[in-house]
Amino acid sequence: MIARINKTIPVFLAALCFGCAGEEPPPPPISVDLSVAIGAREDVDPAATVHLSVYHAWTGTGELRYPLEIVERWETNLGSSSFRFDYPAELGEGLIVYAWVDSDGDGANCTPTVRGDLADLVEVEAFPAEQVSVSLLLDAPCAGPYWFFPGPEPEGDVW
Questions:
Q1: How far apart are the first and last CA of the chain?
Q2: CATH match of 30-146 with 1.25.40
């Protein structure tokens, strides 16, 4: 029995190795240094938590293409901050930076009764890049990332 297993293992390992032959390995992720400057209206507490996220602008192809696939997220504060993240280029294209400030400290971006959380979004035009700097002004009440991006539907027939 053991002799049969010892003969089978190399065949199995070879099948695994050669089964993947011919496929290109995915490109390595892009290491991105992100610098953000986040401001808000005067009535926002400067110590309030800001939820910052980066997204692929687009993921998928053809009819399965869709916007805003999350890449990474952090909590920070108003002002300037820096982050480093790995951008998996094989999973999508473009870079979106979105933030909202938790004005009431409840951990939710607005509720039916409390509507004071503010947001902003930036599409990084010159991407891919290893260094990205953006400025956000959190002034849109209760706006999730889909409110900003991808923008209005194209006019006319798209079919």
A1: 62
A2: no
The two three-digit tokens of residue 111, written as one number: 């509720």
Q: Where are the domains of the chain?
A: 30-146
Q: What pLDDT, on a 0 to 100 scale, did the predictor assign at position 19?
A: 53
- Cα separation, 100 vs 72, in Å, equals 15
State the DSSP H helix or E strand holding residue 52, giving kind and residue range, or none if neither.
strand 50-59
Compute the Cα dihedral for 8, 9, 12, 18 and give only its sign.
negative
Compute the C-alpha angle 90/151/84, nearest 5°.
Answer: 40
Residues of the chain with pLDDT under 70: 1-22, 152-159
- State the alpha helices, DSSP H only, in 66-151: 145-148
pTM here? 0.80
- Amino acid identity at 148: F
pLDDT score at 27:
85
- Tell me which amino acid residue 44 is: V
Quote the CA–CA distance of 49 and 18 in Å, as a whole number.
50
